[in-house]
Structure formats: C-alpha cells, structure tokens
C-alpha cells in the first residue's frame, strides 16, 4: 500500500498546514470534475484517504507508530510479571483480532389471516414478505464488482488500536476498536453501488407457507432462515407467522370443537324431522327427534377441527333453538286452540328461575 506521505508529496515531519496545502493542490488537479480520467479518479481517492489520516493528529500518530508500536515498553518491563497481568486485563497481551462484517440477520414477523374452514385440515398459502435479501450485484461482499476490501492502514488489519496509558503502577497497554475501519480490519474504498456497501437490499418476495390444521389465533409458526439477511450477506434470521383466524358468521370454536345454533320450527320440534345442513367441510344429515327442547345439543362426532398435535378431530355441536311463531292467521289460531284443548295442559305455575337461552346453550356446549 502506498505511503500516505509519498501520496501527498510531503516529508514525514510536515506540518498540518503543509499537508493541507499539498492536498488542496492535488485535489484541484485530480478532482473528477476537472480530470475525468479513470486513473485520476483512483489517484484522487488515494489522496483524499491520505489526507483524512494525516490531518487527524491521533490517526497520524498511530500511522507513524505502526500496528503494535510501543508494546512492551520500558514502563511495563520494569514490573515484570505484573506488566503481563495488566496487559491481560486491559487487552494489550491478547488481541481479539478483527471482527467479521458478516452478521446474522434479524427475525421477521408477518401476520397471516386464515378462514375457519381452512384450519380444519390445514392449508397452503402464498404470502408476500418484505425483508432484506442478498445483494445480487456484490453477492454479499459489499464491494463494487471487480474490487475487494483493503487492509486498514491505521490498525494494519488488526481491527484494534493499542495505546499506552500511564498509571501509578507503570505503563499499561489498552486496546479499543479502530475508528477508521470500525474494528473490521479492512476498509471498502469502492462500495457496491446497488446496496451501498451493505451486502443486502430490501425486496418483496413470495414464499409458500404450509399452515397446519388446528392452529388458532395468536399461534406463531417459525420458518428458519426465512427472515432478514444479515449485514454483508450474513445468515438470515427466522420468519415468524402470527396466525389470526377470521370470524365466521355461523360457526364458532371451542378448542377443537365447532359450535353452531340450529333454529327449529315448533311443529318440527314436536313431530320430529330430518334435515341436511351445510357444514364447513361438506353436508351433514341431522335428525330432530320428536319432542326436542330448546338448549338441547346435537353432537356430530369427528366433524370438528383436526387436532394440532396428534390425530383425530373434534366434534360439531349444534344447539337447538325452538322458534315459537309470533304471527298467526285466523285458521292457524283455531288449530292451535283445538290442539290446546286436546292437550288439556295444567295451568301455568311458578318454577325455579331459568337462565336465558344463550347462557344455557353455552353451558351445555361447554359441559358436554
């Protein structure tokens, strides 16, 4: 790598003003607006980087000293074994080395709404996900095509800056991440123009999701490595799908059982009848026995929701509500009167307080 002093054309003991004047002179000659040539552009980058380092007093001092200059100086040697101990505590004796640019990506969360009939047997969905994906231009390298990272000339690839700190017990070496390369040990002079040196870009993609039978609102499904791609093309995080089951106008759910209410005319409840009903997974035949009362529950085995873990299904439970007619014509009224006279029912009497129909239905559903 070219020496910064040689790039600017100044002596190693040049003052800050001399360095600034040399940079301004070269910048006027090499700036892309004045000199559009490719060689001039690369030279301009070198000149700018050299000026950034040498114009900063701390970076210049570290550049002049080198990567481990001053390590094991007279102050530390004077304490023998104690110097080694303090170096271990403060990081001077054992360098951790540069850290990797590649990082694991974050997890992502997507909410998915499904219908009640879809969770009986499970379903497959195509969903759109907005996440960070691998940059196809640089393939995660963060560099423009045809280029690569270069070793940091401040920490010389170690990713750490070491400094000597005076203490009552002598000189102690301390170590901290390099501010120029941020601890990576390398810098990227030519970042990828597509991802701006991130190694990833945001994009919308479509993935196929298998939603198992028996899921319920609030359940989260984990899809490994389908989340955000990490910095510099790092391993993707996980994708979590949070399920929400949409409300159904007819059927509701209690565990793996399905609940519904069947309105039955008074005459059908008295005489009994058979009817065909449309369930979520096909038609079912239902028998209304003669004398059926409101709040009775008809149970259809194995027509509920498939168990999430294990085999088998819940039941379909149908609560009966006997409908009493409210408007009768003259003929119907006479027929009801004749029926009442034939039945000769006892006079109405007080009995124990009865709960409302829907409360009784709920209790019957939950206790069966």
Provide the fold topology.
Blueprint: H1 4-8, H2 16-30, H3 38-54, H4 57-65, H5 74-77, H6 81-90, E1 108-114, H7 118-121, E2 123-134, E3 150-151, E4 160-167, E5 170-177, E6 186-187, E7 200-211, E8 220-223, E9 239-245, E10 252-254, E11 257-265, H8 266-271, E12 273-279, E13 282-288, E14 297-300, E15 316-323, H9 330-343, H10 357-367
Parallel strand pairs: 1-9, 11-15
Antiparallel strand pairs: 2-7, 3-6, 4-5, 8-9, 10-11, 12-13, 14-15
- Major sheet summary line: 4 strands, mixed
- In CATH, the homologous superfamily of the domain at 252-367 goes by the name Urease metallochaperone UreE, N-terminal domain
Mean pLDDT: 83
How much of the sequence is in beta strands? 25-35%
Residue share in helix = 25-40%
DSSP helix count? 10
Overall description:
There is one protein chain. This protein has 368 residues and is an alpha+beta fold. The chain has helices at residues 4-8, 16-30, 38-54, 57-65, 74-77, 81-90, 118-121, 266-271, 330-343, 357-367; strands spanning 108-114, 123-134, 150-151, 160-167, 170-177, 186-187, 200-211, 220-223, 239-245, 252-254, 257-265, 273-279, 282-288, 297-300, 316-323. Among the domains are: 1-55, DnaJ domain (Helix Hairpins, Orthogonal Bundle); 108-140 and 195-245, Urease metallochaperone UreE, N-terminal domain (HSP40/DNAj peptide-binding domain, Sandwich), CATH 2.60.260.20; 252-367, HSP40/DNAj peptide-binding domain (Sandwich). Helix content is 26%, strand content 27%. A hairpin with a 2-residue loop joins strand 12 (273-279) and strand 13 (282-288). The longest helix is centred in the N-terminal third of the chain and has 17 residues, at 38-54. It is rod-shaped and about 125 Å long.
